[in-house]
Amino acid sequence: MTPHEQATVYASIGPISAITISCGKGEYSDPGQVRELQTLCDLIGERYCGSPASPSGQQELFPGSGIFISSFRLAAMNHASKPNCMRLFHALFDHFFTVEECQNAVPFGRPANNPSGKEGKQVLDRKKVDGILTYVLRCATLPDWEPIEEAKLKKAFVNKCRARAGSKE
């Protein structure tokens, strides 16, 4: 597990009041980063924790996406990834897709029919794929984030799916 994956962000209910990051060499607090993280949360949109459709402590990745993630986990991913959108993509992909889901699967297209009778490749959950794609592309338009082309992000989906399918975890 990388230091970025070990990062834990603590926030009070409501405005964020503290950040504590643990990266294997102890913990440190940086009050200067609180303002930056709060601004990011404000730019991305309102929290949907109070929504009756959202599980406790979770929010939609973006309004109307239908996919949920811990508010704190999303804030930690954004903070650890900034300003690199590709790093954010990898963190979201790893969160939403397991190695098992990536076995014999593709991120785009339709399920394949194989004339030999063998089962064809399955398509990953389209709602999750579209949600990650939309969220990362939206972050790329925000100040202090590096822009990324949609085609490059889609290629990363394909490559990430192949890499995880080949892993023996």
Can you describe this structure in just a few lines?
With 169 residues, the protein is mainly alpha-helical. The protein has helices spanning 3-6, 31-44, 71-81, 85-96, 99-102, 126-139, 150-166, and strands spanning 20-22, 27-29, 58-60, 68-70, 105-106, 122-123.
* Class derived from helix and strand content: mainly alpha
The number of distinct β-strands equals 6
The shape, in one word, is globular
Alpha plus pi helix count: 7
**SSE order, one letter for each helix or strand:** HEEHEEHHHEEHH
Residues in helices, as a percent range: 40-55%
Question: What top-tier CATH class of the largest domain fits best?
Answer: Mainly Alpha
Domain BEN: 64-168
Organism: Culter alburnus
GO molecular function, one term: DNA binding
Protein name: BEN domain-containing protein
Main attributes of the structure:
6 strands, 169 residues, two-stranded antiparallel sheet, mainly alpha, 7 helices, 45% helix, two-stranded antiparallel ribbon
Written overview of the protein:
The structure is a single chain. With 169 residues, the chain is mainly alpha-helical. The protein contains seven helices and six strands, in the order H-E-E-H-E-E-H-H-H-E-E-H-H. It has a two-stranded antiparallel sheet with strand order 1-2. The longest helix is centred in the last third of the chain and has 17 residues. It is globular and about 55 Å long. The N terminus is likely disordered.
Sequence-ordered SSE layout with sheet pairings:
Layout: H1 3-6, E1 20-22, E2 27-29, H2 31-44, E3 58-60, E4 68-70, H3 71-81, H4 85-96, H5 99-102, E5 105-106, E6 122-123, H6 126-139, H7 150-166
Parallel strand pairs: 5-6
Antiparallel strand pairs: 1-2, 3-4
Helix pairs in contact: 3-4, 4-6, 4-7
Protein name: BEN domain-containing protein
InterPro entries: BEN_domain
Organism: Culter alburnus
